[in-house]
Specification:
180 residues, mainly alpha, 7 helices
Length: 180
């Protein structure tokens, strides 16, 4: 990240770790994935694989923690921007969100509302035709992928991962200076 960094003074448990610079115990990954491939060829691509893995680890009794040590700089989406014209980013974003949602024990009404919000965005927005098509395909393929992953890996219980309350004022104070 460029600019100011959000610095914490102590280790904190988090719901999921981003794939920026994670460190995993190999034995935890093997146990958590129950002998399945870590990321099967039909699984997540480009987005949310880190969230999937973290939630899966919480479901197996492992914890995700952030150790507040700056040891590198991450230039978010640098590689993918290089191939943006060849990769349908909207497709993968929506597909993966829907697939992960389909795998969880989130209430059915919440899932339906999310689908409707995404469909509304694709149909009623001023996005170009190609982008709207990517979103619609992402939604439908996300539902298929979610079903397949749920059969392979089981349901991800969201209640096993912590959801931490954060004071919105503190978050805003940390984010605002970073906005260009």
């Amino acid at each position: 990240m460029r600019g100011k960094h959000i610095i914490y003074s102590k280790n904190i448990f988090v719901t999921f770790v981003e794939g920026v610079m994670p460190v995993y115990r190999v034995c935890a990954i093997k146990e958590g994935m129950e002998g399945e491939d870590l990321f099967p060829t039909y699984g997540f691509m480009y987005f949310l694989e880190d969230m999937f893995l973290s939630l899966k680890m919480w479901n197996k009794g492992y914890k995700s923690i952030v150790i507040p040590t700056v040891c590198g700089e991450h230039f978010r989406q640098t590689t993918i921007r290089k191939y943006k014209k060849n990769v349908c980013l909207n497709y993968y974003i929506y597909k993966n969100i829907i697939a992960l949602l389909k795998m969880t024990n989130c209430r059915r009404i919440m899932k339906i509302l999310k689908y409707l919000v995404f469909i509304r965005r694709a149909v009623l927005s001023r996005l170009n035709k190609e982008t709207r098509k990517e979103i619609i395909l992402g939604i439908f393929n996300g539902i298929k992928l979610g079903r397949k992953l749920r059969r392979t890996y089981g349901v991800i219980d969201l209640w096993k991962a912590p959801i931490y309350k954060v004071e919105i004022g503190k978050v805003i104070k940390q984010i605002i200076p970073r906005i260009p």
